[in-house]
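U., I forgot to send this yesterday:
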Amino acid sequence: MRDYLNGFSDNVQEIISKFKFSNQLETLVEHNRLYSLIKKFTDSEINLSPEPIKDKKGKVIQPGLSNLGMGYIFEELIRRFNEENNEEAGEHFTPRDIIKLMVNLIFMPVKDQIQNTTYLVYDCACGSGGMLTEAENFLQELATGMGKEVTIYLYGQEVNPETYAICQADMLIKGKKTDNIKYASTLANDGFPNFTFDFMLANPPYGKSWKVDGDKILVGRKKEIKDSRFLVWHQGEELQLIPRNSDGQLLFLMNKLSKMKDSTRLGSRIAIVHNGSALFTEKLWLKASSFKRIKRKIFMINQSYPF
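Result:
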């Protein structure tokens, strides 16, 4: 089994590593379950191969599993995994109807502005990649309906190793490149510095401490922010937007605002899920002025790029 797994390419090896599959194998062997599991997957009643199983007369007794069929199975596994494992505070599986609402909000108001060009779509807390996939499908269908030909590149970043591995696997199954899916904390390690994007979506953690990330974001004796994503220039003054370390959800929003385009007619559009408290509760900020400044920044951007 190990020799078989070691024969895969480097990108698949990374997925196997993030799933800690070797540890799972050891557990299965220890409890004498590996053989029974392999036997289950190779049962004559199950065919996970793309080739059909035929009897001696050439009659198909088990149809092959297409890429689409494997995709459906994988999507169901993702749904079950997310429902059972989002236990940490602030981490939430985004229901499909919410994702559809978000993609409608960012694409439909500008459907008449879709051109024959390339679009970049970004999710800074991409999880298993559901938002990116839904956004790509929606934009592609919208463009086709408008008689446009578009090229879409997906970008994402995820800090949870298992959901990152799921996202990577999903991209591979769909024939997508995985180079633009980064494994790291978005707040502490920006995977796409100097990038700007056309469309951005996210359901970032909220009500979750960013203290660990703060050790990298806040530098010097005065613990000041030097990352340009979290700095705002207003009337010639550099303003630091620092929330209390008990809730860092607005830092994800600031990350997205910093990656908006200002050199195209379309600009950038963002759909992001928040629990509301960060926009209306001043006590979440180390400085009350930070609360007012971020609201001012969002308002000014909305004036520049109206809905």
